[in-house]
Amino acid sequence: MSVATIAGHQLHVDGEGFLTEYDEWDEALADELAARIGITLTDRHRAAIRFLRNDFPARGETATLRRVAVVGGIPVKELFELFGAKPAKKMAYIAGLPKPRGCV
């Protein structure tokens, strides 16, 4: 585990830059993380990110794309439109969560 400085905050990250401490994330950090991968967050992006953030504590793992679609009610097609290629990985990164299981 490493420590990175993002938006003036010292944050714990893994080797791929995903935050490893759930409580280090906030909405302002989401904007900064999204900007780093070329995404400007809209209300629809934020809905997906909030679903991931709310789902994680109960399940102990980051929701898969399928779970976001089925349980979160955001169609997979829309997730690809919002986040581009590899939407699950990008959503997890912006949400400050570990990369979803099975994501390469």
UniProtKB/TrEMBL annotation:
Q: Which SUPFAM superfamilies match?
A: DsrC, the gamma subunit of dissimilatory sulfite reductase
Which residues does the entry assign to the active site, renumbered to this chain? 103
One GO cellular component assignment for this chain's record is: cytoplasm
Keyword Cytoplasm attached: yes
Compartments, as annotated in UniProt = Cytoplasm
Q: What is one Gene Ontology biological process annotated in the Swiss-Prot or TrEMBL record?
A: tRNA wobble position uridine thiolation
What is the predominant subcellular site recorded for this chain?
A: cytoplasm
Report the Pfam families cross-referenced here: DsrC
Keywords from the UniProt entry: Cytoplasm
User: From the Swiss-Prot or TrEMBL record, what is one GO molecular function term?
Assistant: sulfur carrier activity
Cytoplasm as a keyword?
yes
What family is this protein classified in?
Answer: Belongs to the DsrC/TusE family.
Per its UniProt record, what NCBIfam families does this chain match?
A: dsrC_tusE_dsvC
This protein is called what? Answer: Sulfurtransferase TusE
Species of origin: Actinocatenispora thailandica
Q: What is the lineage of its organism?
A: Bacteria, Bacillati, Actinomycetota, Actinomycetes, Micromonosporales
